[in-house]
Amino acid sequence: AKASFGEMICYYQSEMDEAVRTRRQIAADLRYAVERQELRLLYQPQHAVQTGELVGYEVLVRWVHGTRGMISPMDFIPIAEETGDILAIGEWVLREAAMAAAQWDNGLKVAVNLSPVQLQQPDLVRRITEILLESGLPPKRLELEITESAIISDKLQALHMLRQIKALGISIAMDDFGTGYSSLDTLHSFPFDKIKIDKSFLMQSSTSPQAAAILRAVLALGRSLKIPVLAEGVETPEQLELLLSEGCAEGQGYLYGRPQPLEADGAPLGLGATG
Ligand code: C2E
Ligand code: CA
Ligand code: CA
Ligand code: CA
């Protein structure tokens, strides 16, 4: 039998109530996720495209919830940004990653995602400085990845903060370039050390001439601005071939390696740790 309009409204209403309740529960549990040590870090390799050489790792957070199991950052970072818990989470991620990377024996870089909310924290620079001192990680081995939405809300404040971070010797990558709020204006207002082109472009490049054209244009832009471009989402040899022939600097994706936990010795897969 066909549901009446009224019945359908009721149905959607209860589905919505359910979604709201789940979100509220996740937000409540998230407050304790750091204390309960439920967060885990995975490390995904970044490679120089032309030589194949490993150059660093991006750190990606996971939440292993007591009853819900593994929760994707896409499902809890936005909630944490709303509740403000991202400040504690972001600081935990940075500290863990810095402590781990300080032990690697080959001086590779570690790239950490910085939420727009963290960038509005007045004492962010002091907190980062403390973590560097505590961990002993040289600032040149740390890269912070920020999306352009981080800059859009209060541009002057954000750029001021980024300049201070950069003055510490930390490098700054623009994440997800080509999506959301990306504008050329931001690129020229701040000296980014790297542009990460969003994975959607490479992933669609074989089926969409437009996506391939945008990818090429971003690579050309990086070349003329002298900013190295990293392509995300490298999954196939064909995609790598395209990046090779277009002179792309760096790549990251399943073809090189999936995000992995550290091994027992504290180093990422295939890397040794010092003593
Ligand atoms: P992102 O910074 O753009 O990270 C790249 C995402 O692409 C990761 O998803 C990674 O697992 C995925 N990926 C990497 N290579 C491939 C590939 O070859 N193919 C495909 N299909 N996907 C690939 P993940 O780990 O689910 O993270 C999602 C987003 O959550 C990240 O996007 C980032 O915005 C956010 N995030 C993750 N960890 C943190 C964190 O510690 N702090 C903050 N603020 N955000 C984080
Ligand atoms: Ca990122
Ligand atoms: Ca990205
Ligand atoms: Ca993203």
From TrEMBL:
It comes from the Bacteria. Residues 23-273 form the EAL domain. This is EAL domain-containing protein. The chain holds residues 641 to 915 of 915 of the full protein.
